[in-house]
């Protein structure tokens, strides 16, 4: 374990100094995917812990008035009782972190999948592996605003976070608030999901959490980490706390920021596009095209956050558009389409693209040959691949070995902290994960 040196300022925020760490490779694991027709697994066979430095377990939630969930997702509202590890209903102080689902997360008296315990067991393969509990996510971010708004609820959040880390032997908290001041899924009428002070309060929330974890680190003799997932959007980055950018203030309490460098385009858009391009293709005429790429967002974030606190997000999945016009190049790119392709919510995991025959290996063993009537194209400007079938009009934007290598090369040149990807189950054969590990860890 690297030596950690802590120094405390007179202000609310403790200043901590620590030895320079190595590059990080962070993979998310979605807890809910252990159930279903093709369940994901957590084991040495399915997850190569040696190719990772951290795993973010998605997701825990915030309890309020004895319930968690999001009342704005569905009708009736998608809310549930807050439960402990045995499945017993609990009513912790408002703002407390709770399990997302004990059936997925714990043993549940022999009936559960015990995701948390199985993740800890992966440390047998890699003792240096760090485990993070990711709180929130797209569906479960609706309680962050009220939790961050008062010191009492900020304290409840921090105390419950520490209790979780100690109980389940995790190493850090990853906050996935989507998004402060601009909630992704609005609440039902009468509930508060965001307010103009969210970014200021977010800074205070993380400061409170850092204070709690610094003290716990001294007591427990181990390092506790805090990270966040940030939106790849100028609107997210903008905002002030006092006389400085809010993200600058926030970063002081964080170990690093995971930039969600994907979903720039999706089947919700009327035209096809590259959902995780590294650079801009000048032929992309959508109004926000200039900032809808990895380089633009990294460059913008670097104005406010040091490079060694930024982690570049990678997408191990793709999106499919239906009935896209071929266009002048007969490749379907930047052409009008008619919604998404019905393949697991328009998503195409990389392992599905290879396993179902959309992609085949070339002479070098790389998946660069299209199948099932698709042609694989490479966009040199954006450094991104895509597939198109002129017969069906289906267009698929995704990432492959070549695109991942371009991004790892980019982040090394920029001096970034490392790479994060969504998600482990989307790369069941570990094809893309091996590229990241080789490029960043030399494995």
Automatic annotation (TrEMBL):
<dbReference type="GO" id="GO:0008061">
    <property type="term" value="F:chitin binding"/>
</dbReference>
<dbReference type="GO" id="GO:0006032">
    <property type="term" value="P:chitin catabolic process"/>
</dbReference>
<keyword id="KW-0378">Hydrolase</keyword>
<dbReference type="Pfam" id="PF00704">
    <property type="entry name" value="Glyco_hydro_18"/>
</dbReference>
<feature type="domain" description="GH18">
    <location>
        <begin position="23"/>
        <end position="443"/>
    </location>
</feature>
<keyword id="KW-0624">Polysaccharide degradation</keyword>
<dbReference type="GO" id="GO:0005975">
    <property type="term" value="P:carbohydrate metabolic process"/>
</dbReference>
<dbReference type="InterPro" id="IPR011583">
    <property type="entry name" value="Chitinase_II/V-like_cat"/>
</dbReference>
<dbReference type="InterPro" id="IPR050314">
    <property type="entry name" value="Glycosyl_Hydrlase_18"/>
</dbReference>
<dbReference type="GO" id="GO:0008843">
    <property type="term" value="F:endochitinase activity"/>
</dbReference>
<keyword id="KW-0146">Chitin degradation</keyword>
<keyword id="KW-0119">Carbohydrate metabolism</keyword>
<keyword id="KW-0732">Signal</keyword>
<comment type="similarity">
    <text>Belongs to the glycosyl hydrolase 18 family.</text>
</comment>
<protein>
    <recommendedName>
        <fullName>chitinase</fullName>
        <ecNumber>3.2.1.14</ecNumber>
    </recommendedName>
</protein>
<feature type="signal peptide">
    <location>
        <begin position="1"/>
        <end position="19"/>
    </location>
</feature>
<keyword id="KW-0326">Glycosidase</keyword>
<dbReference type="InterPro" id="IPR001223">
    <property type="entry name" value="Glyco_hydro18_cat"/>
</dbReference>
<dbReference type="InterPro" id="IPR001579">
    <property type="entry name" value="Glyco_hydro_18_chit_AS"/>
</dbReference>
<dbReference type="InterPro" id="IPR029070">
    <property type="entry name" value="Chitinase_insertion_sf"/>
</dbReference>
<dbReference type="InterPro" id="IPR017853">
    <property type="entry name" value="GH"/>
</dbReference>
């Amino acid at each position: 374990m690297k030596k950690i040196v802590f120094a405390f300022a007179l202000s609310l925020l403790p200043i901590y100094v620590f030895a320079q760490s190595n590059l990080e490779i962070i993979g998310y694991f979605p807890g809910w995917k252990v159930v279903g027709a093709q369940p994901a697994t957590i084991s040495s066979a399915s997850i190569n812990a040696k190719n990772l430095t951290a795993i973010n377990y998605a997701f825990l939630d915030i309890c309020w008035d004895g319930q968690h969930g999001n009342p704005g997702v569905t009708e009736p509202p998608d809310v549930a009782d807050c439960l402990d590890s045995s499945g017993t209903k609990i009513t912790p102080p408002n703002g407390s972190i709770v399990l997302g689902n004990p059936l997925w997360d714990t043993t549940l008296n022999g009936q559960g999948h015990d995701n948390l315990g199985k993740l800890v067991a992966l440390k047998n393969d890699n003792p240096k592996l760090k485990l993070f509990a990711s709180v929130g996510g797209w569906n479960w971010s609706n309680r962050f605003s009220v939790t961050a708004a008062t010191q009492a609820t900020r304290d409840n959040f921090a105390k419950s976070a520490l209790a979780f880390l100690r109980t389940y032997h995790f190493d850090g908290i990853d906050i996935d608030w989507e998004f402060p001041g601009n909630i992704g899924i609005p609440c039902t009428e009468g509930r508060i999901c965001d307010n103009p002070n969210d970014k200021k309060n977010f800074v205070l929330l993380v400061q409170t959490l850092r204070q709690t974890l610094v003290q716990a680190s001294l007591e427990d003799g181990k390092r506790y980490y805090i990270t966040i997932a940030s939106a790849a959007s100028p609107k997210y980055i903008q905002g002030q706390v006092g006389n400085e950018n809010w993200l600058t203030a926030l970063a002081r309490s964080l170990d690093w920021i995971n930039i969600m460098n994907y979903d720039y385009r999706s089947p919700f858009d009327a035209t096809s596009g590259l959902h995780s391009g590294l650079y801009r293709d000048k032929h992309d005429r959508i109004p926000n095209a200039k900032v809808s790429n990895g380089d633009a967002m990294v460059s913008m974030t670097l104005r406010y956050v040091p490079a060694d606190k930024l982690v570049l997000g990678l997408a191990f999945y793709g999106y499919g558009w239906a009935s896209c016009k071929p266009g002048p190049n007969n490749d379907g790119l930047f052409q009008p389409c008619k919604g998404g392709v019905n393949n697991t919510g328009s998503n195409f995991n990389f392992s599905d693209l290879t396993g179902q025959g959309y992609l085949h290996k070339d002479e070098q063993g790389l998946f660069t040959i299209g199948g099932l009537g698709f042609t694989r194209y490479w966009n040199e400007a954006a450094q991104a691949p895509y597939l198109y079938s002129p017969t069906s009009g289906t267009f698929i934007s995704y990432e492959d070995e070549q695109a991942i290598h371009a991004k790892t090369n980019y982040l090394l040149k920029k001096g970034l902290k490392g790479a994060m990807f969504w998600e482990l189950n989307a790369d069941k054969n570990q094809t893309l994960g091996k590229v990241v590990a080789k490029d960043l860890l030399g494995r």
